[in-house]
């Protein structure tokens, strides 16, 4: 099987996944997350129920389809940091790049979407789990990057503080979205908030995990 064939299959798979997610999002917004079944999503998307569950083993991830990116992004940013750059500096830089793009992975979305997320206990619980997974992924990367031993608590402590910034700012984007602010207004407010929040960590972590 040639590379072109594999590439086309992967492209088709990604398109199917995105279409399922789009259909599910529309249905959940219209009727409520808890009121729509996976079978109904499959029927509306024109695929088998098993196709939906193969792409999205958990119903919550039909909506939170960026969960893998949310979990992986801070760890990847730290692993790819520049020479002389600390973990904190890399994450600060990465956050402001995402903010400039109004990236969905840091909370930017429409008010209907945010109301759906915040109105569902299941989705709120899944979001908390994603934040925890992100913290764990970052802790593993920090341990590897600093050569920390299994009994060294510092990578976990640093990851907890660093990802707490992202979690608080994520929630602030949601709060401001529900308050009716547009993306530009939110980004301007978050820029100031992010600078002040990252600055709080500078005395403790500014020299930690410098490449």
From TrEMBL:
Q: Does the keyword Transcription regulation apply?
A: yes
Question: Which superkingdom heads the taxonomic lineage of this protein's source?
Answer: Bacteria
Q: Which Pfam families match?
A: TetR_C_14, TetR_N
InterPro entries the UniProt entry points to: Homeodomain-like_sf, HTH-type_TetR-like_transc_reg, HTH_TetR, MftR_C
- This chain's protein is named TetR family transcriptional regulator
Matching entries from PROSITE patterns are given as: HTH_TETR_2
Q: Which residues bind DNA?
A: 37-56
Alphabetized UniProt keyword annotations:
DNA-binding, Transcription, Transcription regulation
All copies of the HTH tetR-type domain together span: 14-74
